[in-house]
Amino acid sequence: MLRYIFIALFFWFSIPHFLCAQKADPNKFDFNRIGKNVNSSYHESSPLVSPDGSTLYFTRTNHPDNKKGTDGGQDIWFSEKQPNGKWGPAQHMKSPLNNRRFNEVMWISPDGNYLLVRGASKKKEDGLAITTRKGDSWSTPTPLDVKDFLKMRKGRFSGATMNSDMSVLILYFSEKDNDKFSDLYVSFRVSGTAYSTPMRLESLNTRRDEFAPYLSQDDRTLYFASNRPGGHGGMDIYWAERMDDTWLRWSKPMNIGKPINTDGFDAYFSLDNEGNAFSTRTYPGTVGNSLDILGLIPKPPVLTLSGTILDKSTQMPAQVSLELINVHAKVDTFFYNNEGGYYEINLPQDYEYDFKIALGSKTLISQQLKTPKIKQDSTMVLDFEIDAPKKLASLSGLVLNKNTNLPVECEIKINGPENFTTNNDAFDGAYGVELAKEGSYEITINTEGFLAVSLPVEIEAEHFDNGYILDIYLSPLEVGTTVRLDNVFFDFDKASLKTTSYGALDKVVEFLEGTPSMQIEISGHTDNVGNDQYNRKLSKDRARAVKKYLVSQGIAEWRITSQGYGADKPEVANDSDENRAINRRVEFTILDM
Length: 593
Hints:
Keywords: Cell outer membrane, Membrane, Signal. InterPro entries: Bact_OuterMem_StrucFunc (IPR050330), OMP_bac (IPR006664), OmpA-like (IPR006665), OmpA-like_sf (IPR036737), WD40 (IPR011659). Helices cover about 10% and strands about 40% of the residues. By secondary structure, it is mainly β. It folds into four domains: about 10-55 and about 130-300, no CATH class; about 305-385, Carboxypeptidase-like, regulatory domain (Immunoglobulin-like), CATH 2.60.40.1120; about 395-475, Immunoglobulin-like; about 480-590, CATH 3.30.1330.60. Strands 12, 13, 14, 15, 16 and 17 form a six-stranded mixed β-sheet that branches. A five-stranded mixed β-sheet has the order 2-24-1-23-22, with no helix packed on it. It is rod-shaped and about 135 Å long.
């Protein structure tokens, strides 16, 4: 029978079977309307879903098709789930059910073939009865003989549920005349349809209202409604765990929490085998009898990938970056930068990722990761220990056209204690690498249309924190281009080449071999110290020595001219020892391509 005449809402949730052990998280569900096949302008209440989730039983009040029509009658209706997952049109339960004014399904057996319904006989609205499925219909309800129940039951409302083998009844009623508040009781089957005198469940009852009991499929968890203090609204759903087989000892009832409970009236909770839950929600103070059945559809379960990345030698957080790239269309990328060495990211299930741990531009770990399919929120832990240096030295700069100062896009090779190959940025010419080891490095650029360059760089550990900046200017391969020959050395005040010069000159040989039609001039230059005539002769002799070496290595003599300019063409003013050292040089200039 109706407890409240307000606006009623059925709610359909999907929740984990372990809901009894935790509050429902509102962030894990989306609201969804079940549809107009079940909703109507009449008052529906007391939803009860079959364990297999195929049938939803509920009561509908004052419908013209009810046994008592619109004169306050409450009948059993049901809806069947369709192949598309939606609920079909509501159907009125036919005879021999709906045989009194207030009809209700209060329990469904695990196999769906037995129903506990309200009423012991056509003459009595009170009492309980069992009906059995017969094909597409149901048998005439068989009354249950619960000793002293009709004598004890004096309040306005009553009802019950059962355990899975029908050996235990959980009832609600009041022993006070016309009392609108009920308490919970337990009764045990004695034989057949006979049950013992109900006993109060003292650990569950309060001075307030407890009603609408529902047992989970394992017979361990009891859900019921109560308006006890501390709830969210007028009536909330609670749960408690059975502590032993006496059925008298229960854990402290816990509020099931939001979003199932609201600041309105929430009661009549039931679950199917998949965790889909239903309840009735009503709001006092609203005119009329109206109904919406809403659903809480579960969001896809979340897979959390987490772990630590530690330096193997120190067991301290490794200062590295972590990157995940989805190999499908969508790319999910994040970088680990946590002083605690901990990373965490939520990933969709059944996806493939490239998983990389890098130290600067150097990849330390690279592997493919496929996330598994999951049925509930799960955590996947991947811990790493890596050999990571404590510090890195940054080496960066620009690669520019020497004549125009415009960026030159190129490949840069860095060889030394560590070897790198990288490309600079085509937009601004910038490059950058991070070196983990100190020592002597050589930067080599050999790109089409420009003279190749090889530059030495000395990386020292004490300067790691400051970084190194080296801008590189490339000379275009065109007539008139002049290139300084670094690392060409002579004996003091002589024109004899030191053997340490051969490496630099061999690169000139290699370059000329690659451009067989090119002609060049080798030019020698001095500073302004000493006699001009002597300086011109020394510079000319040194230029000839360079030409002689190139010819000795197979370059045709006609391709090379030599000239000494003394101090006539300084690069900078001869006003310091440093500048005079710059002006003492050997160059070559392209004369013809």
